[in-house]
Design a protein that fits this description.
four-stranded antiparallel sheet, 12 helices
Length: 411
């Protein structure tokens, strides 16, 4: 039901336009909604008749779980901390029978365990009981009356169920992973043989002193290879010397001409040292090259998102050594649990999730859970609840509770 106040304040000519605009706005969210003007008493009677004729739709999540709207609540601080304690919530059971061993979810606050379920007197009973001695207590003093009232409340409250530690659902929502149980891919015998064969093929005969181990021999450079490397280095040094001499001579000639022109055309002025940056152009060129290279990579990733080019400066076997080659994505064996992130180990695993789900729903339909039946007025003792829940209820916010199915709190 949607109430829009202030409709009678509008002129009669604008009421029809306002009603049409309101109908368009509501139709987006509620296509089958009907508008009832409440400007007169007969129109309000039509609205009440329409509400009385409506049928409540059956919601699966609500029908399979016991739920309760708090009629009254009380908070008892715990012995360790006043911020955490036992929350006593009273209300009428709806949906399914309520078991004390199941977990309860307080909407907006989290999951909790219950310690016991009580059956206090129904405050909205159609046939209230006449308590003997109630008339007598009216004639007694105020102190005696309050004491007798407290005794009567204690006598009337019955404990329906207490939690059984062996049957109670756990609050554990994640698996505590064992770091020593991580799977590791071990090379096969064929891979070991191929690695040994590749090492034998790369072996060469080198002259070494007596008593040298294989590890030390691997670091000894052959004389022929050393001589070739020295010759190459000497040739490169000679070429560099020639280039340096030519560049120096050209710089000297150019500097003399520039000095003559500068003396004729330029004037003397003071310049701060910060302006003279010899490497400014070099930095600009490096930044531009990096930006161009980054743009090329982003462009290639956008054009070919599932392709990787073989690098030219690195061998392909080195570049892709962390990858595994598959002959066929369809037929090659692949372990789906291999090399998963560590956070995946905290997730509970079901052998068949849909089968487990159907089995639990079938049990709910066949078996009647022990505890408070639908329609009973009960008081739930909920353990380890923060005091903020009670503060929220005192501020006028509704307190709604739902019992959870087995394994429903697990991730």
């Amino acid at each position: 039901a949607l109430a829009v106040p202030g409709g009678t304040d509008l002129p009669p000519k604008k009421r029809l336009d306002a009603k049409k605009k309101l109908a368009r706005a509501i139709e987006k969210r509620f296509p089958e909604a009907k508008l009832f003007p409440l400007s007169a008493e007969p129109e309000s009677l039509l609205l009440l008749r329409h509400l009385a004729a409506q049928r409540q739709r059956r919601l699966a999540f609500r029908a399979r779980r016991a739920h309760l709207l708090a009629y009254a609540a009380d908070f008892v601080p715990g012995p360790e901390s006043p911020l955490v304690g036992t929350l006593k919530v009273s209300g009428f059971v709806r949906g399914q029978a309520l078991s004390v061993n199941s977990l309860v979810h307080i909407v907006g606050h989290g999951d909790f365990q219950m310690s016991q379920v009580e059956a206090p007197p129904d405050p909205l009973s159609l046939n209230p009981r006449v308590v003997k001695g109630q008339k007598r207590s009216q004639d007694m003093d105020i102190q005696d009356d309050s004491l007798n009232g407290a005794d009567e409340m204690e006598e009337d409250v019955k404990v329906l169920m207490k939690a059984d530690a062996s049957k109670q659902e756990s609050l554990q929502s994640e698996v505590v992973p064992d770091p020593m149980e991580g799977e590791q891919t071990w090379p096969t015998d064929e891979e070991l043989r191929e690695a040994e064969a590749s090492l034998k093929a790369n072996r060469k005969v080198v002259k070494v002193p007596k008593g040298t181990s294989k590890y030390q021999a691997a670091w000894i450079v052959d004389e022929e290879e050393d001589a070739e490397e020295d010759d190459d280095e000497e040739e490169e040094d000679d070429d560099m010397d020639d280039l340096m001499e030519e560049a120096a001579s050209q710089e000297e000639e150019g500097s003399e001409k520039e000095e003559e022109l500068a003396e004729e055309e330029c004037e003397t002025m003071t310049v701060s040292e910060g302006v003279r940056d010899e490497h400014y152009d070099e930095k600009m060129e490096e930044d531009e090259e990096q930006m161009l290279e980054r743009y090329k990579q982003e462009r290639m990733d956008e054009m070919f998102p599932d392709e990787v080019d073989t690098p030219r400066d690195v061998p392909a076997r080195v570049r892709f050594q962390k990858y595994r080659g598959l002959k066929s994505f369809r037929t090659s064996p692949w372990d789906p649990k291999e090399n998963l992130p560590r956070d995946y180990a905290r997730i509970f695993q079901f052998q068949d999730f849909s089968r487990t789900r159907k089995h639990i729903f079938r049990q709910i339909e066949k078996e009647e859970a022990e505890g408070a039946s639908v329609g009973w007025y009960v008081t739930l003792h909920i353990c380890n609840v923060p005091a903020s829940v009670m503060e929220s209820f005192r501020d006028g916010r509704p307190l709604v509770l739902f019992t959870l199915l087995p394994h429903e709190q697990k991730v």
